[in-house]
Write a structure and sequence with these properties.
With 468 residues, the protein is mainly α. It contains 20 helices and no strands.
Length: 468
């Protein structure tokens, strides 16, 4: 699972939408530059927040993207908002669909090798896909459309061989089944990343549908191992092939790029390298926090092995509510007259969204727990671990809010504290010998993560200028 959809946005596109009501259709870029400067944007913020050399370069890019203002724009904007919500919610299916093939993979490679692949290659893929998406969005924000496509294409093609080598290093005895599994894991992660970038979620789900059905058929005992592996592997290969093809197409919703040469790839990415380490740290800590908690249970009791399913399936809901929070925050600017009123209102909205996210994920968890209980496979440890993942989902909502204020270092600090807390309590306690105790520890670390992220928002959430 990756969280590229919400965290790695195109900041210039958001700026265009923010400035459009004030600018309408400006006559030239100079008019845009004046408006940007009056809005508090400086050369430094143009460089750090939007990837442009100065305000005037940023103004030219904003002017290009504003385009003509159609008469029916408000109706189309409403339809776009509905489409965005559906796309966000569908991301949970994207993240969850590969799990239908896990039982087939388990039969192919064995329990221990499966766990090694999920931990080593899954963590690598999380970081690989997240950093690739962040760089691609940064390049897109600077108007380097073709370079962003080349970046994603290269990451999609180079990633699977790197994953194969990583898997063999982590488990030398895994052999060719591990190589195939490692390649498939990272290939799908990159396919999903490209699909989110190009808004092709529905197409990717359609491509993966045969593999998902084959995996479910294998679990039901109606599809033999060989055909299930063949159909599942073919679906993953097709997903990667479509993703590579999508990177050759223009990003959706983009105006025609001007016919101007783009710098070489090294020159294009060089301005972003100074900020890449903190994004790398964020992705690595996010993966470590979740994988560390679930590693002991991936090949164990059924209720513990699937405890993260409500979080994975509900990540689209989390992303949708995070986007909705931003929309409501901007709306509050027009409904409040004083900074103190806005501050109180935005904090109330944040708490309300945390409650909504918790409720939505709790509903998914209750469905899972009811199914496990009906089959006699639910234990107290499984119930607590599923509850802990609900708390993690609410924490990830807060992660998106903090990250959307470009406070990646604060997100990293909060994740590091929560990870250290769970690691320490697991070592002090009974380790993994008592799953119930460990699940309680993980729940506590998830709540600690929420508290740390709310504290990280203390000085920035109520600053009205961030939403103008």
């Amino acid at each position: 699972m990756t969280d590229t959809a919400q965290l790695y946005y195109d900041p210039v596109d958001l700026l265009v939408e923010r400035m459009r009501p004030r600018l309408g259709r400006p006559v030239d870029a100079m008019q845009v530059a004046v408006a940007l400067e009056s809005d508090g944007i400086t050369d430094r913020s143009a460089q750090t927040d939007y990837g442009q050399a100065d305000v005037f370069m940023l103004a030219e890019e904003v002017w290009r993207r504003l385009g003509p203002v159609p008469a029916q724009r408000s109706a189309r904007t409403a339809r776009h908002g509905e489409g965005r919500a559906l796309r966000d919610i569908s991301h949970g299916l994207l993240y969850l669909s590969p799990s239908a093939l896990f039982p087939v993979a388990l039969a192919l490679v064995g329990g221990r090798t499966m766990v090694v692949a999920l931990l080593a290659v899954g963590g690598l893929g999380w970081v690989w896909a997240s950093c690739s998406a962040w760089l691609a969005y940064r390049l897109l924000g600077r108007g380097l459309d073709r370079t962003s496509g080349r970046l994603l294409r290269g990451a999609a093609l180079v990633g699977p061989p790197v994953a194969a080598g990583t898997g063999l290093v982590a488990s030398p005895a895994g052999g060719w089944p591990l190589v195939l599994l490692a390649v498939a894991i990272l290939a799908y992660q990159m396919a999903a990343t490209v699909a989110l970038f190009h808004r092709r979620e529905g197409a990717l789900l359609a491509v993966m549908a045969p593999g998902v059905l084959a995996g479910l058929g294998y679990v039901a005992g109606v599809v033999p191992t060989g055909p299930a592996v063949t159909v599942g592997g073919t679906s993953v290969v097709a997903a990667l092939a479509f993703a590579v093809w999508w990177t050759t197409r223009p990003a959706p919703g983009r105006p025609p790029a001007p016919a101007r040469p783009e710098p070489s790839f090294p020159r294009a990415v060089r301005p972003e390298l100074s900020r890449l380490p903190v994004v790398l740290a964020y992705a690595g800590l996010s993966a470590a926090f979740l994988l560390h908690a679930n590693a002991p249970y991936l090949s164990g009791a059924a209720d513990l092995a699937v405890a993260a399913a409500p979080l994975v399936a509900g990540m689209g809901l989390v992303e949708w509510r995070a986007h909705t929070f931003g929309v409501h925050a901007r709306g509050l600017l027009h409904r409040t007259g004083y900074p103190r009123q806005f501050g109180a209102a935005i904090w109330r909205r944040l708490i309300a969204e945390v409650v909504i996210v918790t409720g939505l994920l709790s509903g998914l968890a209750m469905v899972l727990l009811a199914l496990l209980s009906a089959t006699g496979r639910l234990t107290d440890a499984g119930a607590v671990l599923a509850t802990a993942h609900v708390a993690v989902g609410a924490a990830y909502f807060l992660v998106f809010v903090v990250a959307n204020h470009a406070r990646y270092a604060r997100v990293c600090a909060a994740l590091a504290v929560a990870l250290a807390a769970h690691f320490t309590t697991r070592q002090i306690g009974a380790g993994t010998a008592d799953p119930l105790q460990d699940a309680v520890f993980f729940l506590g670390s998830a709540v600690l993560l929420q508290v740390s992220l709310i504290a990280a928002l203390g000085g920035i959430l109520a600053q009205a200028w961030r939403y103008r």
